[in-house]
Amino acid sequence: MRRVNGLATLSRALSCGGVEKRLAQAALMSTRSSSLSNSHIFSQKLAERLGLSRPSLARSVSGSMSSAAASSLAQDTHAKEKPPSENFLPKEVVLYQYEACPFCNKIKAFLDYNNIPYKIVEVNPISKKEIKWSDYKKVPILKVDGEQMVDSSDIINKLFLRINPDSSIRNEEEKKWCEWVDNHLVHVLSPNIYRSTSEALESFDYITTHGNFSFTERLVAKYAGAAAMYFVSKKLKKKHNITDERAALYEAAETWVDALEGRHYLGGSKPNLADLAVFGVLRPIRYLTSGKDMVEHTRIGEWYSRMENTVGESARIKE
Fold it and tell me: Start and end of every GST N-terminal domain (predicted)?
């Protein structure tokens, strides 16, 4: 009965007019939903969906990525259209993810580029029932022939070494920009995709359409979630010393293009791990308002289109 009353409240909120008023009323409704204990928990769960509640990934150079994994993918001899490697032919790869999580999308970009077939298990951010089996309660989680791997940078590191077991070339430039993605670029995204109430709704329309939600959760998440993340994004903006969201996004895009120094990719003739990381975290926002603005107002569009063509079609196995 409480769930029915909650849906009725949402219906009345939608009829009031004014986006911010609707969002505020929907946010209040989230405190009454039987699936949530309070709005703080709901906001935390939704923030986690995009990797916002994860601890900082800053770490020492030796801890974040081994020198072998930081070596250039330009040294990789296999082509995308061929099998990944004679050294790495897993029978089953399963990614436990949130569709819009930037760290999950880093892994998918790596798998897609290397043509490694994988299955997706979309995790419900509220119940997390899909990862009850694991002691690790965050995403991404990657299972390779039953072996659990966690943390996006560590996952990519391990996969790279399995594909390239003899690689020993140290590339400090590549390591630097992989760390820049984790420690800077991802923090610029949320204040942009939730910059206004309309953009927050646009983002949560994408999240709830692609995510693993029940019917009721989808209704609540789109409006209450958008409202919650609109306000959370303001706190993130302050935390990361961002004064103008779009300016920060454009600056990050231009910083990356400058790092290319005229090359097709940071890796030269082929993408390296940094190229794949930047592409991976930007891919979910590319066709949202913020991503369209970024391409229109910066020089990153040419590189991004080149990466889209090079990474190619998803290697995901659809069941």
Answer: 91-167
Is position 103 annotated as part of the catalytic site? yes
| Contact residues for 270 (Cβ-Cβ < 8 A; gap 6+) | 72, 73, 74, 76, 310
Please state which of the ranges 24-38, 146-160, 305-319 shows the lowest mean pLDDT. Answer: 24-38
Torsion of CA 128, 107, 79, 178, to 10 degrees: -170
Question: Which one has a higher pLDDT value, 88 or 112?
Answer: 112
104 is catalytic: yes
Q: How far apart are CA 303 and CA 64, in angstroms?
A: 26
Catalytic residue among 98, 113, 213, 250: 98
Catalytic choice (42, 88, 101, 223): 101
> Among 103, 118, 206, 265, which one carries the catalytic annotation?
103
Residue from 88, 104, 204, 279 carrying the catalytic annotation = 104
Cα 278 → chain centroid: 10
Q: pLDDT by residue (tens digit) across 15-68?
A: 444 544 444 444 444 444 444 444 455 555 555 555 554 444 434 333 444 444
